[in-house]
Amino acid sequence: MKRILVLVVVALLCVGIVRITSYSKNQPAAVGNAVEAPATAASPLPRQPTGYGINLSYAAFWTRERAFMNLAAGGGWNAIRGGSWSELPSNRIDPDGTVLGLQAGESVALSLSRPPRSRHGDLAIRCRYEGQGTVSGVAMVAPKVQPGRLDFTWRQDIETAFFRIDATDPANPIRHIDCREADADPKLLFDPAFVDSVRPYRAIRFMDWMQANMNRAGDWTRRTRPGSTIQAGPQGVAVEHLVALANQAKVDPWFVMPWNADAIYMENFARYVHDHLDPARTAYVEVGNEVWNLDFPAGKQALAEGQRLKLGATPDEARMRRYAQRSVEGFRIWERVFADAPKRIVRILSGQNAWIDPFMMALTYKDTAAHVDALSSAVYFGQTLFAEPPADTRDLTPLFPPLNASIASTFEAARRYKAAADARGLRYIAYEGGQHSSYSGPDKTLIPRFNRDPRMGEAYRLFLQGWDREFGDLLMLYHSTSPIGSSIHFGLAEYSGQPLAETPKRKAVLDMIAASRK
After folding, report:
1. Average pLDDT, the chain
2. How many angstroms separate the most distant Cα atoms in the chain?
3. Position 117 confidence tier, pLDDT thresholds 50, 70, 90
4. Which of 279, 322, 331, 412 has a CA that sits 20 to 30 A from residue 250's CA?
5. Sign of torsion, CA 38 428 433 256?
6. Please, how many CA atoms are within 13 Å of residue 390, restricted to the half-sphere of its CB?
7. Long-range pairs of 408-414 with CB within 8 A, sequence gap ≥ 24
8. Coil/strand/helix, residue 62
9. 99: number of CA atoms within 13 Å, CB side?
10. How many CB atoms lie within 10 A of CB 366?
11. Which of 155, 67, 133 has its CA nearest to residue 481?
């Protein structure tokens, strides 16, 4: 079990590192101002009604957010040899998430998402599967196996359980694994409690569900299919499920299309959305996530492509013009697919909130602005709160006045985006936002105490009220659920089913949403 815990911890640390490096560029190196082409004369749009949305966390088991009824949907395969665990190579797993065969002396184990904690105590879980082989479990209490079924008890103090395969018939392999509460409807796709948790929001952003930052998707033949056991792989969750969630929760979906999506992928994806998304819903669309951010593979790829195509005199210009070019290529396809209902899509161009100059290089490139409906940035506050770690971290009281005061500087930078949008008659919306205070000192309890403090809820209320007062329109908070760490924490909740009283950030957001609807 120690090796299991190590695997989980490593996964969490990797994500923490990605988020920290992705949003720490609040004081970029000095660069020349971007030359802005004159904006086409346009009247600012009338003030748009304020709406609050949420970025969903990854669909993976380690986020502790149970989205799918099938607990295997958020899992990943590990190879076990001689007691040693390692990630199973992707070329040994077919598109449906099936392990094609085992090597001599090898077993494989599929991690399962933890069901929400239950006031009723331990849970009876039933795993159904097809195929021939030998199955067992790891961290399962009293497992009972019969052909096509494995029953066990998920004890409340167990964080992660694994469905293990010790033998599988290559001609009829163990496949289509589905684990859920024994008394649950076997046809139910999403956990109803999860659907209820996202229903209050106006929109949900699928950046992490679509694995936009991994930069591996884009080939339609390799995409995750709705029948795939695993929905948390590098190809992202199946588009069918993205649309189904938006329709069930009655929220607008925000799709972050893969940077490498070819024309076939883009058109098939857009066509499915056109044909199956509730006509009352609006589809928000952007190409790539944070292409301005060279910590992400898409940013590096855009730079290399822009320089190869000689799109700019400087690296920033080449990269951001390539971003504009790829965005327009994608938007043209969505425009064609939605030609009969153009108002059902919102085409988005995004940039870093504190550094608008590179963004303007994209917006003013050729006819980019003519294919865009909304400009977007990430409105985080509190980024420099721990620039000098406090010597005494026992009392949190001194931290909240500067945290609250930082909201003003965040909005000051956002006004530049709003002005650029107003000059072109476009919307200004925020693709991410919320508290962003990272700490690298020795007190491992500081970030947990800081995020759980009721005064953090008050900071969110000030932030949301300020957005409503000054900007309006759509603010997408980052993010829904994740375990709390010792250096940074973005989640509004720490696990599915967490009592609202224990989540000051989430409570502040839901209170603001409720007040806005009165």
Report:
1. 92
2. 71
3. confident
4. 331
5. negative
6. 17
7. 408/466, 409/381, 410/353, 410/379, 410/380, 410/381, 411/379, 411/466, 411/467, 411/470, 411/471, 413/353, 413/354, 413/356, 413/377, 414/353, 414/377, 414/379, 414/471
8. helix
9. 28
10. 12
11. 67
45-55: per-residue pLDDT in tens? 999 999 999 99
End-to-end CA distance of the chain: 50
DSSP 297-324: HHHHHHHHHHHHTT--SSHHHHHHHHHH
- CA gap 94, 117 in Å, rounded: 32
DSSP 142-196: EEEEETTEEEEEE-TT---EEEEEEEEBTTB-SEEEEEEETTS-TT--B-HHHHH
| CB burial of residue 103 (10 Å; 0-12, 13-18, 19+) | exposed
Of 227, 210, 198, give the one whose Cα is nearest residue 70: 227
pLDDT digits (tens, 9 = 90+) for 182-228: 999 999 999 999 999 999 999 999 999 999 999 999 999 999 999 99
Least confident span in 82-96, 105-119, 261-275, 504-518: 105-119
Q: Which residue has the tokens 């010597």?
A: 391
Q: What angle do CA 315, 320, 321 make, to 5 degrees?
A: 100
Residue (of 498, 483, 478) closest to 203 by Cα position: 478
Where residue 389 falls among pLDDT bands split at 50, 70, 90?
A: confident
d(CA 96, CA 94): 5
Contact (CB, 8 A) for 181 and 149: no
- Least Cα distance to 353 among 15, 8, 22, 107 occurs for 22
CA distance 204 to 215: 21
Q: What 3-state DSSP class applies to 129? A: strand
| pLDDT tens digit sequence for 239-255 | 999 999 999 999 999 99
For the chain, how many helices (H) and strands (E)? Answer: 11, 17
Sequence-distant (≥ 6) Cβ neighbours of residue 505 within 8 angstroms: 434, 435, 451, 456, 457, 460, 492
pTM of the model: 0.92
Q: Residue 41's pLDDT is what?
A: 65
How many angstroms separate the CA atoms of 178 and 191, rounded? 14
**Are the CB atoms for 365 and 319 separated by under 8 Å?**
no
Return the closest-CA partner of residue 150 out of 158, 142, 230: 142
Cα separation values, 234 from 58, 81, 97, Å: 11, 24, 12
The sign of the CA dihedral 263, 265, 266, 267 is positive
Residue 121: pLDDT band with limits 50, 70, 90: confident
Q: Which tokens sit at 197?
A: 């948790």
User: Strand 252-257 to strand 374-381: parallel, antiparallel, or no bridges (unpaired)?
Assistant: unpaired
pLDDT classification of 76: cutoffs 50, 70, 90: very high
Rounded-to-integer distance, Cα 268 and Cα 430, Å: 27
In this prediction, residue 518 carries a pLDDT of: 76
Mean per-residue pLDDT for 118-123? 76
Cα distances (angstroms) measured from residue 358 to each of 191, 213, 311, 355, 410: 41, 20, 14, 7, 18
